[in-house]
Amino acid sequence: MSVGPTLIGSVQRALHLLDAVGASERPVTAKALARGAELPLATTYHLLRTLVHEGYLRKLDDGYVLGEQVGALRQHNSLQALLPKIRPVLRALRDEVGGAAYLSLFSGSEIKIVDIVDGPGTPSVDLWVGVQEAAHATAFGKCILSCLDADGRRDYLAGNQLADLTPHTITDARVLEQRLSQCTDVFNDCEEYLLGTACLATPVRAPGVIGAVAISLPSHRLRSAEPRSLQRASERVSRAFALTS
Predict the structure, then answer these.
(1) pLDDT tens digits for 109-128?
(2) Contacts (Cβ under 8 Å, ≥6 apart) of 236
(3) Locate the IclR-ED domain: which residues (predicted)?
(4) Which of 70, 106, 62 is nearest to 208 (CA)?
(5) Into how many domains does the chain fold?
């Protein structure tokens, strides 16, 4: 006699409510949701309060609609769907240049690393300071900052101090702005984030996307690194994003 999988009923019920709200073009009342899911009204209210608290639903005067967390899931899912196309590009870049490869994106108001491809001979950088707090000291951070408009860059820098991470870190906003305006395609940092480590980055250009592809390597190899390999990888990643926009 086969035994079916163990399922958690409360999770199933919550998901059914979420599906019902998502399938409606208008806000849905708790009573309508309870009838459709064949649930007691009290149980429905408990589940709805939880979904609202977690951001998956919003309560309006005339019923419930999908919350911001659902939009975040959609964004993450679209990125996950792209990773099978992007990761081979980063892997090829790692092998061609001999350094760890990174994809970073500007999402909401934050700079995030969304994928890293490294290896035994090409270790990734020890991110001992968070990416958000160190954009001014990394090549991919500077690359993304350069793609923001003046107001966006001003707002970002106003909310994030230019921390002094190494003797080479830029901590003067005017100097940083000058550096950002000088570079058009390939950005670098040489021991600005971590002594002994350098990084090169170039923008990802696609509708609705602000990002960068980067490589890290020992600082003594920075001068010999070929930026064209990085640019080719960025162009391929940009095309992958553009095809899904």
Answers:
(1) 889 898 999 999 999 998 87
(2) 89
(3) 64-245
(4) 106
(5) 2
Shared domain check, 77 and 179: yes
- Is residue 210 assigned to a domain? yes
Task: Give CA–CA dist 201/189, Å, rounded.
Answer: 9
CA distance 166 to 193: 6
Indicate if 17 and 79 belong to the same structural domain: no
Q: Is the backbone of residue 34 left (phi > 0), alpha (psi -120 to 50) or beta?
A: alpha
Q: How far is CA 102 from CA 56, 166, 170, 183, 229, in A?
A: 31, 22, 22, 20, 14
Mean pLDDT score, 167-176: 93
d(CA 3, CA 47): 28
In the numeric block, which tokens belong to residue 87?
């990761």
Q: What angle do CA 185, 208, 183 make, to 5 degrees?
A: 15
Q: What is the spatial distance between Cα 192 and Cα 170, in angstroms, rounded to a whole number? A: 7
Model confidence at 160: pLDDT above 90: no
Same structural domain for residues 46 and 147?
no
CA distance 84 to 32: 41
User: What is the identity of the amino acid at 15?
Assistant: L
Residue 45 DSSP one-character state? H
The domain of 54 spans 9-66
